[in-house]
Write a structure and sequence with these properties.
Blueprint (H helix, E strand, L loop, with lengths): L2 E3 L9 H5 L4 E3 L5 E3 L10 H10 L5 E3 L31
Antiparallel strand pairs: 1-4, 2-3
């Protein structure tokens, strides 16, 4: 899981630090920052998802799993996506 903390919309409620204190640290003015970067370890995902859902300002953004672009600019096909889904292989007709 990858996330982004948009500090420009954050109102400093601190719900993120309550749910995931190892991921979000609060500064002297009461605003959070990412303690360890954007990549979230699998064991911390549940706490971060709870923080994301409870953020009243919607300042935490789930970036999901990024799909790399191929040399031609087209998105690579995900091996885990179901057929017909965005980013997945085409559905069989």
């Amino acid at each position: 899981m990858r996330i982004k903390l948009d500090r420009t919309v954050c109102d400093g409620f601190g719900a993120c630090a309550v749910h995931a204190p190892d991921i979000f640290s609060m500064d002297d003015w009461g605003y959070p920052s990412l303690a360890g970067g954007n990549d979230i370890a699998p064991e911390d995902e549940a706490a971060v998802r709870r923080a994301l859902l409870d953020c009243p300002a919607h300042a935490i953004i789930d970036l999901g799993d990024r799909v790399p672009l191929l040399a031609g600019g087209e998105a690579a096909v995900s091996r885990t996506a179901r057929p017909g889904a965005v980013g997945g292989p085409p559905a069989e007709e």
